Amino acid sequence: MSAQAKRVTGARRSSMAPAAAAAPPDESRPIDLVHLSRQTLGDRDLEIELLSLFERQADHILRQIAAMGPDGDRRLRHDLAHTLKGSARAVGAKAVAARAEAYEECLSAQADGARTAAAQDALQQAVDAARAAVLALLSDQG
Are the beta carbons of 84 and 58 closer than 8 angstroms? Predict the structure, then answer.
């Protein structure tokens, strides 16, 4: 694993990260590799597959939300954010899950446009960080 990937992901004990880099999980890490390892029972191939799927799905979902714009179907945007939240939780992308939940809450509460836009921007930033971490991890696996 490159030094950049370790820094980006906060590499922790998992089949994709060396044990010496162990650290307590926190939301500041784009991907919690300990959580991912637990979810996959340490199966490295499954970790890679799940991270790849998450990376593509997160990109696809955010493109859909952005294409709808602020006046797009509120229920559909909520459902997309909910799907992203579940996927993020599965791979240990805690910041993405938290931002997706905050965006969901804005949509459910019919928050004003500025608040909803800010939540969407925060979600985009969290997804960008997680996708960068995943792509760094995957490039180290190749």
Answer: yes
The answer to whether residues 110 and 130 touch, using CB atoms and an 8 Å cutoff, is: no
For the record, the structure tokens of 33 come out as: 């590799």
Q: Which residue has the tokens 């004990």?
A: 13
69 phi-psi bin (left φ>0, alpha ψ -120 to 50, beta other): left
Does domain 3-141 bear CATH number 1.20.120.160?
yes
pLDDT of 7 higher than 60: no
13 secondary structure, DSSP code: S
CB burial of residue 70 (10 Å; 0-12, 13-18, 19+): exposed
pTM for the whole thing? 0.80
Q: Which two tokens stand for residue 50?
A: 């799940």
pLDDT in the model for residue 142: 61
* Chain segment 91-129, per-residue pLDDT in tens: 999 999 999 999 999 999 998 999 999 999 999 999 999
What residue spans define the domains of the chain?
Answer: 3-141
